[in-house]
């Protein structure tokens, strides 16, 4: 509620304790939204305090969104309130070659990036469709255009999300619900450290500012755009990837993501 008693729209933002998710949540608050926010790193309450200082009513949840139980806890935290915007941003990566990875860790990338996202979009999206209004923003990646040698699971999940976003948008054409896919490039977030990419060229390259990426994504969502690649450099990478053979892309990616490649 605002001080005047009017109801503010509600946004649900996942992965909202740092990086792009934190900045997306800030954009929502500055755009007049109240928040339900979630992450799994123990930092969400601190972020929620910042959002409250900016004038939002906030429900914060520390939940593992790689599990259906965690996603359902988030949905329960929303309760019966109308969700006007869903920003499905939670995501993790994992370095090294696939056969060298712990399988449970690899599966958690899929469960977080894909399964948890699908569960959340399915639940909230059905409410939006029944009401005839709503906005969905899914954080994909330009990495989804590139076979990600030594980061194979992450890039594959982003390819899934990129494709899924376009398909869902088409399915909801006449439903009053918009679906936007935000496709950033390498961005200055904790995902590189959490993924174990230290010691790779990918860790040392200049990265985009999450504040700028989030502002671009939020604007695209509010405009109802189908997709947006943040930054001119990333637009060029995406365009080149679309006309470059996959083996060549995989070899190029491997040179930057292979452990020890920064040496």
Automatic annotation (TrEMBL):
Gene3D superfamilies: NAD(P)-binding Rossmann-like Domain
GO cellular component: membrane
InterPro entries xrefs: NAD(P)-bd_dom_sf (IPR036291), Sc_DH/Rdtase_CS (IPR020904), SDR_fam (IPR002347)
Top-level taxonomy: Bacteria, Pseudomonadati, Pseudomonadota, Alphaproteobacteria, Hyphomicrobiales
Homology family: Belongs to the short-chain dehydrogenases/reductases (SDR) family.
Name used for this protein in its record: SDR family NAD(P)-dependent oxidoreductase
GO MF annotations in UniProt: oxidoreductase activity
Taxonomy, superkingdom: Bacteria
Record bears the keyword Oxidoreductase: yes
Keyword set, alphabetical order: Oxidoreductase
